[in-house]
Amino acid sequence: MRKVMLALAVIALGAGSTACATKKYVNSQVGEVNDKVTTMGQQVEATQERVRTNETRIGEVDAKANTAGQRAEAAGRSAEEARAAAAAVDGRVTDMDKANKRLVYEVVLSDDKNKFEFGKATLADGVKAELDKVVQALAADPKNVYLEIEGHTDGIGSPAHNEQLGLQRAEAVKKYLYEQHNVPLHKMNVISFGESKPVAPNKTREGRSQNRRVVIKVLT
């Protein structure tokens, strides 16, 4: 009987020891988990703080970009307004200058005589010869003259196209006078009337040929 009791006591002691060890293990594991949770929480808070900081910086950058964009837009408007004002002043000065000038004579370079071909702004040899004569006449009687070069077209095509074509013809004449005869650029002005000022009916081939022309007005 004594042996049985002793055995029971040993078993009970062993069981108590095992239970105690198990609690310690569990407490240890829980502590490690708590530490990990605490560390992860701290990392999350740090990450959230960095995100808030970055969002603040991004907001500041966006604000600066918007401000810069507004300033650039305002500067663009100011520059455009300045150019428009300058163009208006230049136009008024040109109009006043023209009003004070007197027409000496004019030279007409038309397709029917000098071959300003349909749809083209190329200077034919006949046009160049006429321009050479104009320069010779100016050299023979030197004056402080001003050349107004008008471009004209026939009525075929859209008004916008004809206005552009008339300008190209006038510019071609201006370029030739400058490059071949050194006529100062500030002494020449080009303008396009397109199809708006015909000198003959556009219903006939002959009339259209006459309307395709460049008029050089010599002014003093």
How would you explain this protein's 3D organization?
The chain is of the alpha+beta class and 220 residues long. The protein folds into two domains: 1-100; 103-219, 60s Ribosomal Protein L30, Chain: A (2-Layer Sandwich), CATH 3.30.1330. It has helices spanning 2-99, 111-114, 125-140, 159-181, 205-211; strands at residues 103-110, 146-152, 188-194, 213-219. The chain has a four-stranded mixed β-sheet, sandwiched between helices. α3 packs across α4 (159-181). 17% of the residues are buried. The model is unreliable at 6-13 (pLDDT under 50).
List keywords for this structure.
220 residues, alpha+beta, 60s Ribosomal Protein L30, Chain: A, 2 domains, four-stranded mixed beta sheet, 5 helices
The first-to-last residue Cα distance is: 150 Å
Taking all Cα atoms into account, the compactness measure Rg is 47 Å
- What percentage of residues falls in helices of 4 or more residues? 55-70%
Overall number of domains: 2
Beta-strand content: 5-15%
Return the CATH topology of the largest domain: 60s Ribosomal Protein L30, Chain: A
Second-tier CATH architecture of the largest domain: 2-Layer Sandwich
CATH uppermost class of the largest domain: Alpha Beta
Q: Main β-sheet: number of strands, strand sense, barrel status?
A: 4 strands, mixed
Q: Tell me the name of the CATH homologous superfamily of the largest domain.
A: OmpA-like domain
Mean pLDDT: 78
